[in-house]
Design goal:
Structural class: alpha/beta
Strand order of the largest sheet: 10-9-8-13-11-12
Oligomer: single chain
Shape: globular
Number of strands: 13
Largest sheet: 6 strands, mixed
Number of helices: 10
Length: about 290
């Protein structure tokens, strides 16, 4: 049986370097502000990025982990005696990280199974947790790939950004969403389009921020069918904790008592959504496995 490691990027918001004894290796995405580049989760936090955005209004640039940093992680994995890697990256519609992981593994000569999470943040973290559980259960690589891929398809990410400037300049939205930016008094409701690898696409449009958030909750419950037993749910935001907490209570009133994680978005996502952005995520549980922060 192969000894399997998990390779992911910092979009999952797991601490870099602290889980390697468990076979989980995280490489940092990069963030550029005022012409200076930082390693995400190592040299700068999401809150620091968001507070700088709020103070200066600057457009933050992000990029995938460097080939060198991914390659260094793969060398480390190989040196630790692992024979195969399960690579779980931020959505390919948002970043080329998964391609970078494939390239690094090919250069090092390490077999790899690539999983596009088609999301990031909470769903990304949970998929890593499940991957580790499947490895510990002795599942083979093809079974792990099948389960994780199926879970991705039973997940979703819905977002609300009151200002589309950051998303438009970052190039991570479809033309349909970009067009909404030219309309006055319109707050778009968006989703990560899985057919486009998780690129941000339009879902609906309303007149106020509150209505946009309520529309997302309606969609999650009425269309996606989430409930308080079978799903891991998160509300993640850019400096609007009070709004996120109020939406958490509304969601619980709709589906019943459950754990809803509320926290900041990953820096590399929040940087493009801008201050006031909120993301809602859900993913079906694997075997009743609960959330583990």
């Amino acid at each position: 049986m192969n000894k399997i490691a998990v390779l992911a990027d910092s979009g999952c918001q797991l601490p870099i370097g602290t889980l390697e004894d468990q076979g989980i290796y995280i490489v940092p995405l990069t963030i550029t502000m005022n012409n200076k580049t930082y390693l995400d989760f190592e040299e700068i936090t999401a809150l620091e990025v968001f507070e700088r955005m709020n103070e200066t209004g600057e457009i933050v640039k992000t990029s995938q982990p460097s080939t060198g940093s991914i390659q260094a992680a793969v060398h480390k994995i190989k040196a630790a005696g692992y024979e195969h890697i399960i690579a779980l990256s931020i959505a390919t519609g948002l970043s080329s990280t998964l391609n970078g992981m494939k390239l690094a593994c090919d250069m090092v000569g390490m077999p790899v199974t690539l999983i596009d999470t088609k999301g990031t943040a909470s769903n990304h973290r949970y998929l890593i947790r499940v991957a580790k559980t499947l490895i510990d259960e002795g599942k083979d690589i093809s079974e792990i790939e099948s389960i994780l891929t199926s879970m991705v398809e039973e997940s979703g990410t819905l977002i609300m950004a009151p200002n589309l400037d950051h998303l438009k300049k970052g190039g991570r939205i479809t033309p349909a969403v970009a067009m909404l930016g030219n309309l006055l008094k319109i707050v778009p409701v968006m989703k990560l389009n899985y057919d486009l690898g998780g690129k941000i696409d339009t879902l609906d449009k309303v007149r106020t921020v509150k209505k946009a958030n309520l529309k997302i909750i309606d969609y999650m419950v009425d269309v996606c069918g989430i409930n308080n037993q079978d799903y891991i749910i998160a509300i993640e935001h850019v400096l609007v904790d009070e709004l996120a907490q109020s939406m958490k209570q509304i969601l619980i009133e709709r589906i019943g008592k459950c754990q809803v994680i509320v926290r900041e978005l990953p820096a590399v996502v929040g940087a493009h959504m801008g201050v006031g952005g909120v993301g809602y995520q859900f993913i079906k549980k694997y075997g009743g496995l609960s959330w583990n922060e």
